[in-house]
Amino acid sequence: MSGTRLSFVLVCALFLLTGCNETEQTTSDGRISLDYWVLFGGGDLGYMQDIVQDYNNSQDEVYVNIILQDFDDYYTKLVTSVAANRGPDIAVSHAAIVPELVNQGLTTPLNDLAEDVGLDFDSFYENLQEAMEIEGAYHAVPIDSHPFIMYINSDLADEANLLDEEGLPIIEETPEGFRQFFMDAMEVHPDKTSIAIPTNGHDVYRWWWMTYFQMGGTPIFSDDLTNPEITIDQEIAVEAAEYVLSFYGEIIPMHISDPYETFQSGNAFSLFTGVWGTGIWESADLPFVAVPFPQLFEEEAAQGGSHTLIIPIKEETTDERQRAKMEFIEYVSDNGLEWAEAGHIPSKPEIVESSEFQEMPYRSDYANIAPYIVYPDQTIYQSPAETDISRSLDEIMAGRLTPEQGIESMINDLEVTIR
């Protein structure tokens, strides 16, 4: 959603605020009461609820009310409620959305508050720290990174002799070797889907993004919040699309209706998606390994996002309440080990390097790519740009446009978007 579209939301969607009045500022026993909005679903929600409960039980001065909002209209409701001074005290935001919220003046700068409670932004992964800093100020605290990875059915891979002694896939780290790995799986399991991934949508976008940056692609936009230039490398963008396209039809069936169900039912050798699948497959008792994509080209790069916590602005607040909000945010970021149960990578290297995390199954197999995630550019146009890119990639993978035509169409759409 662009800055213009967010402004439109402010004017046209205030009806969503019905029933969103602020709760009391204190509880019946005198604790500061804070409303915390989240957009999580599935297993993620349960892990976050546990963290909030642990925080509430850890002290007797602050009580955090976790409030689940529907994902589909989460940001619309967040923007309209904050603009009307009825927003939450703390809220989850994807890192890619934070620049839009900052541009609308809806977030509190966190530098001074962080220093006050002892939260050090240098304690986060460097690429995450950079992603949080917008025009010289921090407006969000990252609680994780969630990269795009591979899930492989370990029983099927073992039958095809494609696992090493440690149970990890044997993949030659070249473009050709990566394709051959899945071709070898198809030879042994011709009745199985080799790679479960849709022909269109976000997972194709994620795969292309990672491939583009591994090939040495430049940022999509220049570093400017509201007036960026398009800096995408068109030639590399085409090459990345050509490589992803080469898997469709021969290795990837066209138009898989439900990749998740295909993998969970044991009918797929692999699935490409985000790390949120780890907790799902664990609970399903599915035999699998979870691994990052190998470095196939010149640069080590991965695709991923980050859940962050922000403090929306409020006209009337106190230093005591602001400090309480920041202390809770610090608590969540420090409890990355518990949040990692959902599959996410903690935002702090210290937690990832701990023996407790390294002993967790699956997570430690892909956590090493956290420093190499290429986060979206800090511009208010990231959300509509993602739509533009995905739409063009959909046309390419479906065979309606050649890679050259699709990328040219993508760049034309980006030009219109930032105009």
- The total domain count is 2
In whole angstroms, the N-to-C terminal distance is: 14 Å
The number of helical elements comes to 19
Which range best describes the helical content: under 10%, 10-25%, 25-40%, 40-55%, 55-70% or over 70%? Answer: 40-55%
* Alpha-beta classification: alpha+beta
Mean pLDDT: 92
Pfam families: SBP_bac_8 (PF13416)
Protein name: Extracellular solute-binding protein
InterPro entries: Bact_solute-bd_prot1 (IPR050490), SBP (IPR006059)
Architecture overview:
By secondary structure, the chain is an alpha+beta fold. The protein folds into two domains: 3-143 and 306-334, 3-Layer(aba) Sandwich (D-Maltodextrin-Binding Protein, domain 2), CATH 3.40.190.10; 148-304 and 378-418, Periplasmic binding protein-like II (D-Maltodextrin-Binding Protein, domain 2), CATH 3.40.190. Helix content is 43%, strand content 12%. The protein contains 19 helices and twelve strands. Strands 2-1-3-11-6 form a five-stranded mixed beta sheet, sandwiched between helices. The radius of gyration is 22 Å and the shape is globular. Mean pLDDT is 92; it is low at 1-23.
Which structural traits does this protein have?
single chain; 419 residues; alpha+beta; D-Maltodextrin-Binding Protein, domain 2; 2 domains; five-stranded mixed β-sheet; 43% helix; globular; disordered N terminus; Extracellular solute-binding protein; SBP; Bact_solute-bd_prot1
